Amino acid sequence: DAGVIQSPRHEVTEMGQEVTLRCKPISGHDYLFWYRQTMMRGLELLIYFNNNVPIDDSGMPEDRFSAKMPNASFSTLKIQPSEPRDSAVYFCASSLFSGTGNTGELFFGEGSRLTVL
Amino acid sequence: AQKVTQAQTEISVVEKEDVTLDCVYETRDTTYYLFWYKQPPSGELVFLIRRNSFDEQNEISGRYSWNFQKSTSSFNFTITASQVVDSAVYFCALSEAGNNNDMRFGAGTRLTVKP
User: Fold this and answer.
1) Which of B8, B44, B94, B96 to substitute to test the interface with A, most A CBs within 10 Å?
2) What angle do CA A88, A34, B52 make, to 5 degrees?
3) Fewer CB atoms < 10 Å away: N or C end of chain A?
4) Burial state string for A28-59 with b = 16 or more CB within 10 A and e = fewer than 16
5) If 0-12 CB within 10 Å is exposed, 13-18 middle and 19+ buried, where does residue A5 land?
6) Are A47 and A67 in contact (CB under 8 A)?
């Protein structure tokens, strides 16, 4: 079975440009999470969705960040305009909490490394 | 909101030594879940274990073992007879059932195992 798929794996852009990161969760999972990882702040939860509905976006740093989940198999994290301090690795993760027999673990994608010059 | 503290930023050991990674958590929820993840140099995050708040039994999986103690709000991770391949950043995480299951991570402990 395919895991969580993120694209692009690497993105280098200039300050002020729009950046869109994409995520395809594991089929059947009902939760989707976006995390950001930096040396200074570690792993930060940005936003998460349940059944495509945003539940908590309190971790989104600024209005420049937005996330959508138009359907159960796709989510985007957009930064507009991007700034050098947005440089980080962005992870998408999905999980299945409903039903029985699941462990509640998060399955992570390989991450998208963003560099804003 | 829940909080996870991993006080050890970096640990360095020599191969075959035992090493314990500490994790202390804070939560007001009575039902919660604790996790350990491994992040090797390649960057992906690998799930190691999950524990729910009602199960304080220690667990052993090969060279890995976990000690969950609610009395001290700790969920420590021990690697026995460490190997070079164990070198990674290890994250402890907490998810509260009453908080829509969002997962918060500790700062991580970077473990280096030298040959």
Assistant:
1) B44
2) 120
3) N
4) ebbbbbbbbbeeeebbbbbbbbbeeebbbeeb
5) middle
6) yes
Nearest CA in chain B to A6: B44
Question: Using one digit for the tens of pLDDT, what is the confidence trace for B22-79?
Answer: 999 999 888 888 999 999 998 889 999 988 888 888 888 899 999 999 999 999 999 9
> Is residue B15 a contact partner of residue B78, using CB atoms and an 8 Å limit?
no
A38: which chain B residues are within 8 Å (Cβ-Cβ)?
A: none
Distance of alpha carbon A34 from alpha carbon A48, whole angstroms? 6
- Residues A29/A12, Cβ–Cβ less than 8 Å: no
Hey, which residues does B24 pair with through a beta bridge?
Answer: B5, B74
